[in-house]
Amino acid sequence: MEKQIAELLRQNQELIRALQIRDHSSSHKVTVQFEKFDEENKSFDSFIERFETYLDVQNVPIANRAKVFVSSLSAKLYQLLKNLLAPDIPSDQTVRTVPFALKGRVENEIDRLEREKVESSEWATAVVPVVKTDGSIRLCADYSVINPNLIVSQHPLPRLEEIFGRRFILITDHKPLVAIFGSKRDLPVLAATRLLHYALILQSFEFDIIFRKTIEHGNVYFLSLLPKSSEELEVKDDITIFQMSQIGALPITSKELRQERVKI
């Protein structure tokens, strides 16, 4: 979301200018106020749509709309956008000095990392040198500078308002679900109460349920067959080794899987 807003700002020099001068109250006075954008609980698309409609109703001149938009940003999102738009907007972070006793070793470590061509990031923060037991230096990042500027998603899974009105597909190897939820007919009269409850909830969404055989579900079929004997796994490729290592960490055993498979 923040990158989407940053792209919008990059296409409009007036918005960038408004973002630069927001800290100076004397040069950033707006006569029209709009609601603050809540980046954690609102969609940017719906916000910008309501924002443009509001400015049209208020007859706000185009030249002043950039200032109104920037004034609607929260302090957290404002600071984040300033960082995303670098080098368009210079950073105002002060440089942290390195202890004089460690300066030489820190410079040598930086030179070593440059020679090895380590991957870099668009973000930068202060370096915290950590002295190891052998006297060498390990460079760590001070995330206390970055963390306040991050917008953490409070909803890693889609919320109801995000998927409402959008068709989604559920692929399952449990065929009765296709007959119960996937059919256009009414629900069976003798259906369990919990199924009726879920069916009522699902009526608000557009969805398709597709049946797929267990053997065609690679992950499910693999779980039901493990573990195998060593003779059957003479050739262990990287995928097999990785899958076996993941299976070993599961809180269930192959015996329990076989028992549940018989019940189905």
From TrEMBL:
One BP annotation, GO: DNA biosynthetic process
SUPFAM superfamilies on file: DNA/RNA polymerases
Protein name: Retrovirus-related Pol polyprotein from transposon 17.6
Natural source organism: Trichonephila clavata
Gene of this entry: pol_3259
